[in-house]
Amino acid sequence: MNTFSKNRQRIFTEKESAPVKPSRKFLSLPIISLQEGHQIGYVKSLILNARTKSLAAIVVDPKGFFKDQRIIPYSRVVSVGDDAITIDKESHVEKPSNLPELLELVKEKLTIIGTKLVTETGKTLGNADEYYIDPKTGKITQIEISGGKLEGFLSGKAWIAAEYITTIGHDVIVTQKESEKALIVSDKGLNDTLKNLVHSTSHLASETTHTISKYFKKDRSKTTAHLAPEKALVQVDEIETTPPESKTSSEIPITKDPLG
Question: Which of 19, 62, 229, 236 could bond to 41 as cystine, CB 3.0-4.6 Å?
């Protein structure tokens, strides 16, 4: 097994077991200070450090708590849960101008989602749909990719580990030479299985419709066979209401109205 294959297996195992969190799961989480017991706002956006490939800070949506923009250095985050992010105290929420090491990153506004991934040899892997973060360290662990020439489950999803990423730029994310071999592609077998399932379901539906149709045809035949035979129509001669031609009008009795 070559190095790429070993790394793919290791990364796949880590992806399933490690408590990584997609970046979108951070957004809109409430931020709570443990010492004061206050909810100081929500996560508005994430500040990334391209050099360290990690989450540098969290931008706070104050919801009236602060009047100007505030950020929390990720090193100040105590925990990232499913329902909230906790910090030790409110004083860890600071103005970007007070943190010159983070101010430039705030101005840079680096994003990953929507950025094209290209190898050092010029092979396009696709576009970044999502990236995953280790909540404990803030490190980016992998990027989810779609599009390109990938073949996967329905929409063609794949993942690449952060260790194969050499540069995160505004326009392009550059990955190592031959890093396409390290992609974790969605199981193509699932795609084939789904196709077979759809085919089997359609075939079963067709057979069921044919059986029901055949049953009703057979049932109609039995019903027709048990019906009583139609009786022959009986012709009834018309009753003659006009006088025979042999009689004259004088022979026909005429009823007279009584006088008076």
Answer: 62
Type of residue found at 220: R
Contact between 196 and 188 (Cβ < 8 Å):
no
Residue 147's pLDDT band (boundaries 50, 70, 90)? confident
Nearest CA to 53 among 196, 179, 202, 174? 174
For residue range 44-97, list pLDDT tens digits in order. 999 999 999 999 999 998 776 667 889 999 999 999 999 999 999 999 999 999
Written as six digits, the tokens of 105 are 């990153």
Domain-wise residue ranges, the chain: 24-108
Q: How far is CA 80 from CA 3, 136, 236, in A?
A: 33, 8, 99
Rg (C-alpha) for the chain, rounded Å, is: 42
- Provide the H-helix boundaries in the chain: 3-17, 100-108, 188-226
The two beta strands, 54-61 and 38-49, are antiparallel
The CATH number of 24-108 is 2.30.30.240
Classify the C-alpha dihedral 111-115-118-119 as positive or negative: positive
Measured on CA atoms in the order 147, 152, 157, 162, is the torsion positive or negative? negative
Q: Is the pTM of this model over 0.70?
A: no
Nearest to 72 by CA among 56, 84, 57: 57
Please write the tens of the pLDDT for every residue from 87-138.
999 999 999 999 999 999 999 999 999 999 999 999 999 999 999 999 999 9
Instruction: Give yes or no for a contact between 22 and 132, defined as CB atoms under 8 angstroms apart.
Output: yes
∠ CA(116), CA(4), CA(12), 5° rounding? 75
Q: Give, in order, the Cα–Cα distances in Å from 17 to each of 14, 27, 83.
A: 5, 23, 20
